[in-house]
Amino acid sequence: MLAMAAFALLGFLLPTLSRASLTDRSHTSSNATLACSDAQVALGAGSVDTAPVSPTLVDLNWSETCWTEPACVIKPKSTKNVAATLSIVSRYQVKFAVRSGGHSPNPGWSSISSDGILIDLSRLDQITVSSDNTTVSVGPGQRWGNVLAALDPYGVSVIGGRTPTVGVGGLVLGGGYFHFSGEHGLAADNVKNFEIVLGNGTITNANAKANSDLFWALKGGGPNFGIVTRFNLYTIPVHDIYYDLVLYSADQIPGLLDAFASWQNGSGGVFDVKGTVAMIVGLEYATVGFIYSSPQTKRPAAFDAFAGIPVMTVVIPPSNGTVWSLTQIIGAATASAVERHDYLAAASQVDGRLYNRVYNFWKERAADVYAKTGANQTFVIQPVPLNLVQQGIAKGGNALGLPLKNMQWWTTLVDWQNAADDDTARSVSIATSEEWKKGSDINFLYMNDCARDQNPLAGYGRENIAKLKAVSRKYDRGQVFQRLQNDGFLLRKV
Ligand SMILES: Cc1cc2nc3c(=O)[nH]c(=O)nc-3n(C[C@H](O)[C@H](O)[C@H](O)COP(=O)(O)OP(=O)(O)OC[C@H]3O[C@@H](n4cnc5c(N)ncnc54)[C@H](O)[C@@H]3O)c2cc1C
Ligand SMILES: *[C@@H]1O[C@H](CO)[C@@H](O)[C@H](O)[C@H]1NC(C)=O
Ligand SMILES: *[C@@H]1O[C@H](CO)[C@@H](O)[C@H](O)[C@H]1NC(C)=O
Ligand SMILES: *[C@@H]1O[C@H](CO)[C@@H](O)[C@H](O)[C@H]1NC(C)=O
Ligand SMILES: *[C@@H]1O[C@H](CO)[C@@H](O)[C@H](O)[C@H]1NC(C)=O
Ligand SMILES: *[C@@H]1O[C@H](CO)[C@@H](O)[C@H](O)[C@H]1NC(C)=O
Ligand SMILES: *[C@@H]1O[C@H](CO)[C@@H](O)[C@H](O)[C@H]1NC(C)=O
Ligand SMILES: CC(=O)N[C@H]1CO[C@H](CO)[C@@H](O)[C@@H]1O
């Protein structure tokens, strides 16, 4: 007993001792603790929160599945601070995780436990619009709601995130799907320049002219190449828009899914890239938003495929608004309960019969799990018109290896409360993704919606994986982002 107490006391004192006697360092304290102490010296004590880390910093991640306490949270104020942090990471060969908006629910992606450090980018939050309003410089720690609000007075917007609390950094690096991606491509396709800190602490830029191979890799290649400290984004000339929002009762959902596929196929005419449909199917009803990238007198004819389906409730009648007003509406409708979350990705060709078959499969299981655990889940078909893929090619190409097809990227949000229900709550979406695979021609998974056990990079294609690995070796010779990064959609796993 006494020996154990002495041991515990020693453990408590060690961090202090180790700072006093440098020679004992690697023996007396963990490298993570030492890295934290060095960071305090290099960045200032106010930029490093050491154990016990303030709960508000640990809990910043959106999903409780990611609430773990690191050895410390380093909060760089500048790109130079990030460079100093990565130098310390290399010196101590310490494990780390990087967090921008903290909206990945995958444990260990932007969270890490006490054997490593969390690099929190929330202070890199500038938003600066260029004098001609054609580009905006955004820090990775910003959130899309703030970005769209800041752009509103300039009469422009960007391809970003639909939910205002989602972070800039993770979304752009995984692709970035927005209401107007069908017209303008993914967020990554609309990046002019990435400022990035490489594994060896070097600060550099990647764009069409400089480090163009790294530029390509960062467009969808995820957290594999460095810490991006600034995104220079092209704005899009979309500000005043049309939308209306309605609810359909559960008995209309089969017809709704058929209508969705007909609309995606152009319902006899030509598909109109200015229009999009946001559809969230739940167990009791479906929420559907019709959005068009310019003002309209009434719901545009592009959406006529849905005209015959009886509406249960009109939430927002045909309206002219702005990208920012739509973002505020989505923000107000987003549940803010603190709980456990997950998402998961699947994809398929446009096929109303397949949509219905998978929906029936999902519905039965989602209802069963709801009865057992109270977990809520959604069934979301995100339209990906051919023009989205073509925009990516026209804008210089990205790493995603998308098939030249009209398709859909299915996703789900799962919300539940108890850790004991993790496996049960997650089982529905996992089984549903297998059901999609049985009928799908599309071998691609959208990284930003992928769950912890999925491997989106594998779907980018053999050639792209080889190119991404070559870029990783070239720009990260020490393989810091593969060896020391805690977890994530990493090339080391492909
Ligand atoms: C409610 C909700 C709504 C969503 N809506 C959309 C949507 O409309 N469109 C869409 O495309 N996606 C959407 N997503 C998915 C979203 O894009 C991903 O969850 C994304 O990872 C979130 O980015 P973040 O910065 O908030 O996440 P974080 O959890 O901070 O980071 C995610 C990953 O990116 C890495 N990373 C973050 N910043 C950097 C950086 N600067 N440099 C290097 N690596 C970095 C992290 O290490 C981690 O691996 C949504 C998610 C949620 C939960
Ligand atoms: C800890 O850091 C020292 C350098 O300070 C390094 O030599 C050693 O390899 C590191 N330990 C581990 C386990 O990586
Ligand atoms: C940019 O936006 C500002 C603010 O709305 C406006 O005054 C200015 O004329 C715009 N500049 C250009 C080149 O459009
Ligand atoms: C949509 O088009 C595809 C390919 O042209 C076709 O296979 C599919 O049956 C069509 N679906 C609908 C709902 O029209
Ligand atoms: C939207 O604004 C346009 C003018 O830009 C107007 O003609 C139209 O009637 C408005 N639509 C609605 C639904 O208010
Ligand atoms: C599920 O949704 C209902 C209705 O919106 C809500 O009251 C409940 O809190 C949700 N449960 C969870 C676990 O999020
Ligand atoms: C850091 O890595 C980059 C990319 O490999 C290389 O160009 C640069 O010279 C390296 N810097 C140092 C200081 O080693
Ligand atoms: C990124 C994010 O949404 N973080 C939330 C995580 O949970 C805390 C605590 O509930 C919220 O305050 C944060 O906004």
TrEMBL record:
The keyword RNA-binding is annotated on this UniProt entry: no
FAD-binding PCMH-type domain sequence ranges: 66-238
SUPFAM superfamilies to which the protein is assigned, alphabetical: FAD-binding/transporter-associated domain-like
Signal peptide: 1-20
Pfam family, one: FAD_binding_4
Stored InterPro entries: FAD-bd_PCMH, FAD-bd_PCMH-like_sf, FAD-bd_PCMH_sub2, FAD-linked_Oxidoreductase, Oxid_FAD_bind_N
Keyword entries, A-Z: FAD, Flavoprotein, Oxidoreductase, Signal
MF terms (GO), sorted A to Z: FAD binding; oxidoreductase activity
PROSITE patterns listed in its UniProt record: FAD_PCMH (PS51387)
Sequence similarity: Belongs to the oxygen-dependent FAD-linked oxidoreductase family.
Name listed for the protein in its UniProt record: Bifunctional solanapyrone synthase
Species of origin: Diplogelasinospora grovesii
